[in-house]
């Protein structure tokens, strides 16, 4: 018993020494960060591997406790309990230390990566963007100069750090010497050296700060110039196509064509603000000769754009004049001004959803009206032919006075016009009701009070007007009517269609209500999934692989979570409409699925020995950490606000998302390089690494899609705000080019 007691006591001392060695890592100095981080990982694996020894010691104490004195047993148990507490604390400390070191290393390398990426961007810009996209913007020697400036800035940064250390050391030495020997520096050489180093250090710091600030601002202006000029070129191409189709291929009515031409003309004048902004950017880049030596901009493309706008404006005026002349020849056939009856006025009131235009009430004529007074001639709509009245009236000759004939013709014309309007309205409403019911994201675009029955209000008012007109006609022309107008085939057909339309609208409202409820449940379930995924991920970091019981609970939670995720994905299939808003929903689902797969992978392989290349493992870990950082950064940025009119704020957001997109591209290249490296022949290691890389790559593509959507929204918002600001612009700044020969172009 005494021998076993001594062995247990010695084992506890060894384990205590291991715990103390872990706790001493926080105060241990190191020069190689990667080596120290690897040492921490080894200690963490050793703690996990030797944790079972604590259970073995506790079991051994229970076995020999009857043979030992109670004080010795209590002493061993107290020592073991204290060691378990210290063990848990050491594990938490080591985990925190590893996370902190990984983050520090990522931040340490971030500065170098950013400048390397900037140099790569300049190389790519010089080799591809200049020739392929701008075709008018040339950078001669400035890119090489800017690249050298960036390298000089990096060198200045390193020299600044060395200078700062040297200044501190020399200042300390100088103070020590003067303290020991007050007359040692009679000539003041050391003092002059200290002042020189201070001056050099401050000058270099100021140069680095100013150069980087000017460079970033110039790159921002250059990016705005490029985006705006490209969007103008695309817009001009689209405008040419639309105008050609409208002039030669369109079969739309005259009023629609004129309206489209007016819209195009107005859009051209609104684009003047964007052209002025391009001019401002170009003038800034040309004037900044200090920051961009040798930078010249060929403004031929912008001149061509302005000339195209002038030609399009002239072309629009020509087309409008042709259409107006053709319309005037048609209107010359109309002999008298329009006359609107009280029924027409009631139908054209502001309460109606479809007001009558003035063009629908020209002169109406009838058989035998040419021999009557031209002042009281009846009127009819030019969009339809004169319908015979013998199906409604017995004969006009049976009507005695001419005023009665005029009144009869007016009432019947109103009756026919109402029938035509109701028929057209019903056909339009039927097309709307037979269209698919909104689902998913489409419901978000509908007002909360929207219903299909509310869309029938205008038709219902026309039906009421018809029902008011029929008794009036029966009262005034009852003796001359062939039959009751309520039994007229046209009226019966309209009433049948109206009844069918109301039934269809009620069914559509019920279907819309169900779709609203399903979409609401789906969004609630998606929010709950995100919260549950985060909770499971947090709990897994502390409880996974601790005991078999916790592992069983974790696996059970993961199985339940996967079942819920599967049902949510099945619901999502019904709502997929391939829109940009749905891509954001897919990104959220993909993020949840990636977390579940990652947790399942950790649960499956958490007891397998990692036998892959340590450097490869560390690189995968770094990529994952950087991807987490970029995803957090993308989510932390303010969302795109469509009501934000401050262009500076919108451009700042745009540039931040562009930088995130560039970082994602660099990570993508690193993942490709890691995937091409040879793997360990052990199948478990290969499967695990392949699975991790696949999950990381899927997350990266998902984040890139979301960032791309935000970039498109910001570009559209910038263009829209520039159009809105064009109304306050009355003059345009002159345009300066590299050869100073471009004239000012103003569109009237």
TrEMBL record:
Gene3D superfamilies: 1.20.58.60. Residues 533-547 have a biased composition (Polar residues). Residues 334-387, 533-553 are annotated as: Disordered. Residues 348-377 have a biased composition (Low complexity). Its main location: membrane. Keywords: Membrane, Phosphoprotein, Repeat. Transmembrane segments: none annotated. It is found in: Endomembrane system. SUPFAM superfamilies: Spectrin repeat (SSF46966). This is Uncharacterized protein. It comes from Adineta steineri.
